[in-house]
Design goal:
mainly alpha; 86% helix; extended; cell membrane; Antiholin
Length: 117
């Protein structure tokens, strides 16, 4: 019975998320929204950890299997990656670095304005 209750809670969060994304015509991924809903339920105390543990523990044990398709996709496109590695490397370095620098500059600007007042 505990497995049934645990599964129903998880699947209900996913179903509600799927319904919301369809209703709102959102491109937000339903599984991610379902996890956010589940997190909100856990944080508010409406759902307790022990209610989810019977189904969640085996899922977490096999979590690496869910990432195998992504790894296969990378291996499948190694030729394309090797052709475009300078661009990819630039994107992986320049975009996060510029984001951090811009955010830092904006924060410094507003902190400076706050101290002037």
């Amino acid at each position: 019975m505990k497995y049934l209750i645990s599964s129903v809670i998880i699947l209900t969060c996913l179903a509600v998320a799927k319904f919301l994304t369809t209703l709102l015509q959102s491109s937000f991924p339903a599984p991610l929204l379902g996890m956010v809903l589940l997190l909100v339920l856990l944080l508010t105390g409406l759902v307790k950890e022990q209610h989810l543990k019977p189904t969640a523990s085996p899922l977490l044990n096999y979590m690496p299997l869910f990432f195998i398709p992504a790894g296969v996709g990378i291996i499948e496109h190694l030729g394309l990656i090797s052709q475009n590695w300078p661009l990819l490397l630039t994107i992986f370095i320049v975009v996060p670095l510029s984001s951090v620098l811009i955010i830092g500059a904006v924060i410094a600007y507003f902190k400076g304005r706050e101290n002037d007042s």
